[in-house]
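REQUEST ID: PR-0412
SUBMITTED BY: lab tech R.K.
PRIORITY: routine
TASK: structure prediction, single protein chain
INPUT:
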Amino acid sequence: MSGMAEYGRLWRVPGAPLLLTGGVVARLGQGVTVLAWLLLVKETTGGFSEAGLVAATISLATAATAPVAGRLADRYGAGQVLPAYAAVYASLQLILLAAVLARVPLAVLCVVAALSGAAFPAISPALRATWTTLTNAESGRSGLRQAAMAAESTLFELVFVVGPLIFSAFILLGTPLGETLDAGPGIVGPATALVFASLCTGLGTFVVARGRAMRALHSSGTARPTRGAGPLREPALRMLLLCAAGIAFSFGGSPVAIAAYTNAHDGPSAESMTGVLIAVWSIGSAAAGLWYGSRTFNGSLSRRFLALLTALAGGYALWALMPNSYALGVLLFVSGAVIAPALTVEAELVSATVPERMLNEAYTWLTTVNLSMAALGSAVTGVLVDRPSGHTWGFLAAAGATAVAAIAAATSTLEPARAEAAPTPLQAHDTPHDAPSKDAQWNTS
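STATUS: complete
OUTPUT:
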């Protein structure tokens, strides 16, 4: 089956509508918060360096602690763990907002920012883990896994298209609200946006986590605890994380390089053109993701991943040759079409590599790598674009990082050597030591 009918089948999976729609709401704040914190802290402290430090602290704290949340979700069930995380995160975001508005010292802001980042609910890993289980061999829906992962990647892309638009709407509302509240629009707009983002993350995560699909996957306390390195003991996952690091570096640096490009080519309209170009890039990715998930492909996932990484690296290199922003926009749309399919295959490779009882933690390691390497890519590219023709160096840095990821994919095994036989009823539960199961090959003592 091909075309949109595949998504129709996916929608009819019990609990799927809430996973798809609720997952968008739960993550909508992610497209708002970074911009909102940057502008609000800058407005109250007077400097982008302080604003960048607070925003970076939130992201890095999330990166450092995400695997802990993933392991807890695997142990006790995401339906039990995520609501608690969501409540704490939303509360700490509002406390941080109050602290910023009260103009408390920067050190205090960073402490609260770190706590809120550490409490961020790992909703994206939980969604991917849920889709993996809903489409395993035992479910009879294994043919829907590609469509599920493609829908997940595409909807996540759309969050970063819609989120900035919502933020812009709050900025426009900031002027009349500021006059009513006798406060500056540069404060009221971002502050209102942050309240909205906190509610979306908190309430959205709670509703999705307590829905039938995610809640039914685990019974609290019944899963065997994971110890030590957990899923990182799988060589294929470690190599996949290395590939993800190169991709994330390029994603973090590309917006900085695009901003430098428009600054060199578009003069006074550079800022607005940057937003348009990044949105076009994301739209190309989202459209291709929907198309990819509706098709059937033959061949190994690892070879497909290599082909997509090679195309992505080539696209970055071609950006450096574009004569103006209009030509760059066309190429961004075309090269963006590689992103969602590549992330879809990446998620499928994780699901093929790691036992189901470790999936949340495995996907949170992707979160850790993505956030930390994106921050590094942004910082390195920021230094590069200060050079003459800096945007060219920024584009080439993105191409180089992705090329390294492609080389890693070409020279390593990203899929497990063990066969993925359909589990028997015995294997679906606690398996005796003499029964051959995927989990049996993992020593968790």
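NOTES: The first helix runs from residue 5 to 11.
REVIEWED BY: pending
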